[in-house]
Amino acid sequence: MRINRDKSTNKSASFPLKVETPRRLLIADDDTTLARALSDFFTSQGFECRITYTVATAKEIIEFWHPDAILVDLLLPHTNALSLFKYINTKPLLRKPRVVVMSKQSLTQGVETMKKAGASGYLLKPFSFDDALRLIDPAKASVIVNPTGEYTAGKVQLDPTTKVMLKELHLVNLFLKQALDHRKPSENLFNLMRMVSMKVKAVRCSFIRILNHDTGVVMASNDDESVHGLPIQLDKYPEIREVMRTMKVLIIPHVKSSELMAPVREMMAHTKFETIAVFPIFMKGKFFGVTSLRMEQRDPIQMFYIDHFGQMAAQIISLTMTDTIDKSSRAG
Questions:
Q1: Element counts in the chain: helices (H) and strands (E)
Q2: Which whole-number Å values give the CA distances from 218 to 6, 14, 259, in the listed order?
Q3: Which residue in 54, 192, 234, 266 has the fewest CB atoms around it within 10 Å?
Q4: Closest to 26 in 3D by CA, of 61, 64, 78
Q5: Beta-strand relationship, 121-124 and 12-14
Q6: Of residues 149, 283, 266, the one with CA closest to residue 207
Q7: Is 304 helix (H, G, I), strand (E, B) or coil?
Q8: CA 183 to CA 248: how far, in whole Å?
Q9: Radius of gyration (C-alpha) of the chain in whole angstroms
Q10: Do residues 195 and 167 lie in contact, with contact meaning Cβ atoms separated by under 8 Å?
Q11: Distance (Å, rounded) from C-alpha 47 to C-alpha 41?
C-alpha cells in the first residue's frame, strides 16, 4: 500500500463546522497499516489517538472516551460510515465529534451524502497526512510538524538549523507529555517505545526491567503492546548483561561480527538488524533496567546522534517509572 506523505494533488472536500481544537482522535479503518501510520503522525502533532477496525467498537469508544475528532473509512467490515453517523446523530453524547471520511471513491454523490450525514470533510485515498490534519484541525495546520523532519510554518521560510532545533524541541515536548500522562502507565510506556522507534527507525525498541542477574521483564516494546510483563532469560541477551556489569551505554555497530554476541550468533542469523544500542535506566540513583534498540546498520554520525538521543529517552522513561511508582506508593 502506498502512503503519500507529500503534498497531495488529490482533492479533499471540507465543510464548515465550528469546533474546539481537537485533542482526542479516533481512527476507524480496517487498513491496519494506514491506521497505525495515521496514529503515529497525529501523535506527533500532539493528539491522543485510538484505533479501531470496526464500527461496533468505534461506537463504544465514542460513548466512553468522547473523542474530539474521528477519521473513518467509508467502507468498514459489515457496514459503512453512514451507520456511524446515525449513531452519533441519535445518541445523546457529551459533545459531537468532528468527523472526516476517508475513501477510495471520488463520486460527487458520495461526498454530498457524507456532507448531509454530518461529515466535516472527505479525503480521497491516497491522501497526504497534512491534508488530513487540515481537515481534522485547521488551527493546527498553520504549523505542521512532519515526522520526516519537514516543517511548514505558514509562509515563513525557516533555515535548516532552526528546523532541526524546532524538531527536537517538539519531540522532547511530546515525550514529556506522554511521560507525565498518569492514566495508563503501561500504555504510556508502549507509546514512548513507539516514539523512540519512529525517531531512530529501530526494528525494535524495548524497555526491560531487570529483576536479577538471570531474569528480566519486558515492560514495553514498540511492535507489540501485549508483551507488557513478559519474562525473559538474560543468558540470551549478552548485551544487557554487559550493561549490567558496566552500568554504561553499550553500542554494538556490527552484531554478527561482535565477540560479545558470539554465544547467541546462531539465534541471530536471520534477524533484520545489524546494530544494537542498550541504555541503562536508573531510578533515584539505582539501576532499574535498560532500553534496547535494535536497528539496521548505521554510520558513525547517525550512531553519535542515537547515542545522545537514547540517553535522553532513557531519562524520560526513568521519569515515567519514578512518577508512576511514587503515585502507587502514595495510593497504597
A1: 9, 16
A2: 36, 44, 25
A3: 266
A4: 61
A5: antiparallel
A6: 283
A7: helix
A8: 32
A9: 22
A10: no
A11: 9
What span, in angstroms and rounded, lies between the C-alpha atoms of 267 and 8?
44
The percentage of residues in the chain with a pLDDT greater than 70, rounded to a whole number, is 74
Q: Which three cell numbers stand for residue 133?
A: 490534519
Amino acid making up residue 229: G
Copy the grid coordinates of residue 314: 532513557
Condensed to tens digits (0 to 9), the pLDDT of residues 225-281 reads 888 889 999 999 999 999 999 999 999 988 888 999 999 988 877 787 889 999 999
The closest of 198, 223, 191, 220 to 207, measured between CA atoms, is 220
| DSSP 3-state of 90 | helix
Q: How many residues does the chain have?
A: 332
DSSP calls for 239-283: HHHHHHHH-S-EEES-GGG-STTGGGTGGGTT-S--EEEEEEEEE
Mean pLDDT across 141-163: 44
Task: Indicate the DSSP class of residue 287.
Answer: E
Residue 196 to residue 191: CA distance in whole angstroms: 9
Using alpha carbons, select from 43, 205, 237, 248 the residue that is nearest to residue 136.
43
Query: Roughly how many angstroms between the first and final C-alpha of the chain, as a whole number?
Result: 49
Residue 146 DSSP class:
-
In the numeric block, which cell numbers belong to residue 179?
A: 511521560
Residue with cell 516514539: 195
Instruction: Give the strand order in the sheet containing 275-283.
Output: 230-233, 215-221, 204-210, 286-295, 275-283, 250-252
Provide the 3-class DSSP secondary structure of residue 166: helix
